[in-house]
Amino acid sequence: MNELFGYIFIVVGISFDFFGCLGLVRLPDVYNRLQASTKCVTLGTSSILFGLFLFKGFSAAGIKALLCIVFLLLTAPVSAHALARGAHKSGVRLWENSVCDKYLEDTENE
Fold it and tell me: What gap in Å lies between CA 9 and CA 37, rounded to an integer?
């Protein structure tokens, strides 16, 4: 039964990784691409690692997979936020069809 759930998580993770890579190619600006890559890493890679944990159980490989999941969930969103904030501060423009820029509005009000 664990193998079936492991396969399901691995397939879901691979599909998230595929659509995240597709988003890197198709999305218009750096901010949307960062969102796609962050979702790819947090959901896709974490699902693949959780599927590996379901296969291996509480062995050395399973514990390492869980530790990698925790590390990815803590670092990937923070690094994407730092990259997006740095890009915005350095003057990288949003896509011309973007609706609003809340960060610019917040910095103008200060």
Answer: 19
